[in-house]
Amino acid sequence: MLILVLLPLIFKACEYIDTMSKSQFAIIDVIDEPLNPTLEIIDEPKHIAVNHFVAAIKDDGTLWTWGFNEGYLRNDENKSNRIDDTVPYQVEGIDDAVAVVTEGLGVFALLKADGTVWAWGRVGSTDIIVDPDDDSSTIRDLRQIKGINNVVDIAIDDDNLVFLTQQGDVYMMGNNTAGWVNGDLTQEILETPTKVPNLTDIIRIEISGKLLLALNRDGELYSTGVSTYRLGRIANAPKLANSDFRMANKVVLPEKVVDFVASVRPPMALLEDGSVWIWGKQKNLTMKETTLKGLYIDLNNEFTEENVSNGLVDEALLPVKHELLHKVINIDENQAVTENGNLYVWGSYLNTTKTKSDYESNTTQFRKPRLIKKNVDPVQLYYSRYVSAVIMKNGSVYFWHSNMSGERGTGEIVDGEMTDDYIFTPEKSIFTTH
Hints:
mainly beta, 3 helices, 7% helix
C-alpha cells in the first residue's frame, strides 16, 4: 500500500530531475584514463573565421562569407550600413584560399596557397597596418601584406597579426607598445612583419592578448609575451628594465602537445594522452578548485617569503591537469570534444539581442563543462564572443551561440531574445566544406 502511495511522488521527482538536467545541460562524466592509441598533432588549416561576420573556406579553395556586413568583400554600392546576409555567399575570384582568421574588431586575414597573406575589414580599429597607403577605416577588398612570403599558418588578435613560414620561423606585425616581440620599445607599431626570436621548427601558432603560443614538430609548446602569469613556465627576467617582454621558452608539460589554445580564460593544451592542462590567473576556471598552485621564482632572487611579499620575485602559475576534462580529442577556447563524440562548452557567452531602438547584451556563464551535442566527429572547433562552430569530418558545419546577424548561415536571423536553450543548441549551417 505504501509503495502505491509513493509511486506518483517518485514519478514526479524523476520527471523534475529529467527536466532540470535538460535545462541545465549534462555535466561531463568521462573516466580519467589515458587514450589508447594516443593522439597525433592537430595542424589543420584554419578553415573558418567567426565573428558577427563569418568567412569560411571550402576544400576546393573557394572563400564564402555571410553575417553582419562590416566584413563583406562584395563591391555592392547598394548595400546599406546594416544588412545581414544569412545565406553563405561565394566571393568571386578566389579559388586558392588555405586559411582565414579574424579578431574581435573585424579585421580578417586570408592565407593563399602561394604563401601570400591578404587582409580586409575594419582596419581603422586596430594597429595592424593592412595597407600603409590607405587610411580608410574599412577596406572592402583584399590587400596583400607586404614583406612576408612562404607562409603556411596565420594567427590574429585585436592588434597583432602573426605569420608562420615554411622554414618554421615566426613573424609578427602590429602593436609593440610592450616591446613583446623582442623587448625593443623604440617601435610602437611594427608596420611590417618582424621575426619573433627564439622560435624555430614551428608548425602551428596561436595568439591572444599578447600571449603567443607556438608548437614545434616534436610536440613541444613554446610561449612568449608580456603576460608572465600566462606563460605556463618560470618567467625569466625581462630583456629590458622597462619592458615586461619574456623571450620564447618551453611550457612545462609532461607529454607531447597535440592541440592548444592561447586564451585568457585560461590558456590550454591538449596532450597526446587526451588530458587537458590549463594555467594562468583566471577566476572562472573550469575546475573543481577555484585557484591554481602558484610558483614564485626569479633567477636573480631567492625563493623566500620576504621576497614574495616585497614583490622581488615573479609569479608564474604552472600548468595543472584539468580535473573534469578527460579523454579529449579536440579543444578550442571554452569548448572540447571527448573520445565518445560529446561536445562540451563552458565559460562566458555574450547574448546580444535586438530591441526596437537598440541592442541589449547579457552574459550566460557556465563554470563547469556542459554537454550540448553528441556524436561529434570534429575536424576543428572555433570560438568567438559571438558565435562558435565545429567542422565535422563529413564536411558539415554546426554553429551555436548568437544568430542575431545570421552568423549561423542557416538563412535565418533571430530578431528577439535568444534563450539559453537556443544559444547552446548547435544548428547545421547551409555551408559545408566539401
